[in-house]
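Dear colleague,

As promised, here are the two records you asked about, laid out in our usual form so they can be pasted straight into your sheet.

NAME FIELD: protein one
SEQUENCE, THEN STRUCTURE:
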Amino acid sequence: MRIPAAEHVAAPTAVSATNAGTVRDSLDRWSAHYGIDRSLARALAWMESGYNNNVVSNVGAQGVMQLLPTTWDYVETVLIGHPVAHDADGNVHVGMAYLHHLLGAFRGNEHLALAAWYQGERAVKQDGVYAVTKPFVAGVVALSERM
């Protein structure tokens, strides 16, 4: 299977082995904290940013997990209940809290949770998975099988 490129992500700059290792450690810690499969967490972060916390998409999604500011605010306010540092570890923390929420909203269905990550929870519930979302989901799933 060919893994599709994440079209919405700006071209990442080089990530040093040290930074990538730090991001992987953060992904492993927060995914364990939220009961998320480590390979899924790593694959999603790689698909979104290549583990680069400096990436900002053309729609304003930021960091390792490519979170929109509105998503960050929702997670801090509703899901976590307190502010989270705006650094790579905080980005991963917020991302894992949000993915945990989506997995719960879709009863553990990783494909639907990933679709909701990409196109929005409400859109998946109302309209199903968009055609444009399917390559993203397939890419993350394929990556998770290799991580």
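NAME FIELD: protein two
SEQUENCE, THEN STRUCTURE:
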Amino acid sequence: MAAGPRRTRTPPREGIDTARLNVLQKVIVDSLEDDKADNVVTIELSGRASFADRMVVATGLADRQITAMATHLEEKLEQAGLKRVQIEGATGSDWVLIDAGDIVIHLFKPEARSLYALERMWGAELDEETPAPG
């Protein structure tokens, strides 16, 4: 199976507490905005991905800013009751991935964000059903 989004709808994940997701998303977006992240975008993944229900993508201009954003997110998510936050790439990378369970956060330097183009890969246009061949 190829990496990336499926073009067909996946069944909704069971046991998802939308109110809790909204609270966590607000914590994430507020934290990123407090840390002066650029171009913070939230993408709804429900029914399109099995690994998470939402994705947040943001840009930082320097390693130190991105590292600080990741550290602050981890602290604020723990304060919000999320105890298992996984962080990949926070030691001087162009891309930091934060797995907050039902929400994944991608922090990029501008060049890496443009290269990987997650908004295009997971954007709303993929919601349109592709007609079956024949």
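A couple of things worth noting about protein two: Residues 27 and 77 are 7 Å apart (CA to CA). Residues 19-119 form a domain with the Beta Polymerase; domain 2 fold (CATH 3.30.460.10).

Best,
R.
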